[in-house]
Specification:
single chain, globular
Length: 65
């Protein structure tokens, strides 16, 4: 895992028992602001279903091999 944007994470916690809608919105914001990890496959599938473009991860943040 790359360094995370701790400030963003503190201000934007994932809601407890988040609905799918909340999870989709959270992961869109997360990818744009932090991107410390990949978007989960379940959320990627929902992006595809909803025809939402996969957000680019924050520059300087990339997945480890």
């Amino acid at each position: 895992m790359e360094k995370l944007n701790a400030t963003w994470h503190l201000k934007h916690p994932m809601p407890r028992n988040a609905s799918l809608e909340q999870r989709v919105k959270w992961h869109i914001g997360h990818a744009k602001a932090c991107g410390c990890r990949e978007v989960p496959k379940t959320i990627l599938a929902e992006f595809k279903t909803r025809r939402i473009a996969v957000p680019n991860r924050q520059p300087g943040r990339r997945a480890r091999n």
